[in-house]
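Quiz preparation item.
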């Protein structure tokens, strides 16, 4: 039995290759905590449906967020076909860049796009987390659940092998452009605040 007043817990799985989220309403958790809800992600260009979307982020030439996941892959492919991709920033499989023991993590640390252009890691990670958060909030609104953001307990999973600096970096990235995302080092255990 949960002890929190939160109506919904959301776990964002920010993966190396694929990302997504699962969620459970309080009444569902009280009944069976092992059956969360998930959303499906569709890829228009190939009629593909999946429970996760690729961990890819696309930024325009001004380093403004453009798209995430399948949409980012498809748009970058279209840009490349038209040879208009050179000034864009496409990041894929960038999560483990935080696991570099040689590099001291700070908000100034840069990571490289697929073609070698650099951007601050905090900007890339924050944009990706913000997208996943926004996707869920849009889904809840479309389904007319009546859930407000203050009703949500957020959880962001991280690899157990990460050191404290990498975990703290993800916490900062999650809080940078959004509120109330909680970094869980062990996953969902309860609806506790």
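Solution:
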């Amino acid at each position: 039995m949960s002890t929190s007043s939160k109506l919904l817990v959301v776990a964002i799985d920010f993966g190396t290759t694929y990302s997504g989220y699962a969620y459970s309403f309080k009444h569902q958790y009280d009944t069976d905590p092992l059956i969360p809800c998930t959303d499906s992600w569709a890829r228009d260009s190939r009629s593909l449906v999946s429970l996760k979307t690729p961990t890819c982020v696309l930024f325009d030439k001004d380093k403004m967020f453009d798209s995430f996941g399948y949409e980012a892959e498809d748009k970058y492919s279209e840009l490349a076909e038209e040879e208009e991709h050179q000034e864009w920033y496409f990041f894929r499989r960038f999560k483990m860049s935080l696991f570099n023991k040689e590099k001291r993590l700070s908000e100034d640390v840069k990571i490289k796009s697929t073609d070698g252009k650099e951007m601050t890691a905090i900007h890339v990670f924050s944009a990706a987390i913000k997208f996943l958060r926004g996707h869920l909030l849009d889904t809840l609104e479309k389904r007319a659940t009546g859930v407000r953001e203050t009703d949500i307990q957020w959880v962001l999973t991280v690899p157990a092998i990460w050191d404290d600096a990498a975990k703290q970096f993800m916490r900062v990235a999650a809080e940078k452009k959004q509120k109330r995302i909680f970094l869980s080092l062990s996953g969902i255990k309860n609806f506790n605040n």
